[in-house]
Amino acid sequence: MRKQNPATEKNIRSACLSLLLEKEPELIGMRDIATRCGISATAIYYYYSDKEKLFEAVKKDCLKRMDEWISSQVSGTDTLSQLRSALEAFRDWAFANPRIALLVMGRLKANTGASSTEMPLYYRSLTLGKELLDKAVAEGSCRSNDTILDSSVCVSAVWGTIESILLNRSAPELWNRGKETTDRIIDICIQAVHSENRQ
Questions:
Q1: pTM score of the predicted model
Q2: Mean pLDDT, residues 140-161 taken together
Q3: φ, ψ (nearest 5 deg) of residue 142
Q4: Which of 78, 88, 182 is nearest to 133 (CA)?
């Protein structure tokens, strides 16, 4: 059996990502990817059995980099500030990497069939948000009866706002006011879980 070459595999994923940033996933074939990285289509199948598995590998790479960025940016002297900084870091990453954000958050299919060990790989940042909210609840600075629900709502609200800006689906006056607009939704999310604002 031929030994896989990590450099070739990385090159395949890089070529695939560059194509995914240019075309819709359904318009990309394994031959397109092979041509982009200068190898035969047969060689790609040695590493990935089909393009969906290759797309999943690319998505995981992108999510891993996003998660690492978010984790590195969490700061603040109290947990509520850290929660806010995590949401701001998600926003900052998405605006710094708009095409990748739209790709992994929307264009590539969700892997609903992922195993229980695989599934957490897709939600590490959400898990970080839940952990911070759990800590804030334990400290008494936040209230939540369901921290996974509240964390998910906050992330979804922030992403929806980001997406509306990136795709120019908000009021035209807001197209160039992404940070201000997302600051507003982050304020709303933080106020929603802040113990002083919840009964």
A1: 0.90
A2: 95
A3: -135, 160
A4: 78
